[in-house]
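Review form for a predicted model. The reviewer records the input and the model, then writes brief findings.
Reviewer: anonymous (R2)
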Amino acid sequence: MLTGSDLLAKVKELGDVSKSELVRSCGYVSTKKDGAERLNFTAFYEALLEAKGVNLGESGGNGKGKAGRKLSFITKVQFNGNLLVGKAYTAMLDLKPGDEFEIKLGRKQIRLIPAGALDDEE
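Model under review:
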C-alpha cells in the first residue's frame, strides 16, 4: 500500500480513472476468505488525507480509541473468566479476524505470539 508522497504521485499519475481502479492501483486491496477481492476504500482515503497533511486524530498508535478516549492499557478478568482485549488495541496492531496466536505463560505474564512466528525471548 502506497503512502505519503508515493501515494500522491501515483494518484496524480493515474489521472482520471475510476475510484475502484485508483484504490486497486495504490495497493489497497485484500482477499476475502472466499478468495474474492476486497477494495479498502477507507484505508485508502485515510492515507490520502494523511499524505495531504490532514490529521483525523484517530489513526493508530496515538493511544486513543475511536471515541477519542485515551486507552488505559489495563483490563480486568470478566465474570466468566475471559480476558478481553478491545478493538482499539487490535486495530493498533493491525490484527484481523482469524489471526491466530500461541499463548505463552510466564511467572507473572501472559504473552501472545503470532502463530508461526519465532519466539526470540526465551
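Findings: The beta strands are 29-31, 37-39, 101-105, 110-114.
Further findings: The two ends are 34 Å apart (CA to CA).
Recommendation: see findings above.
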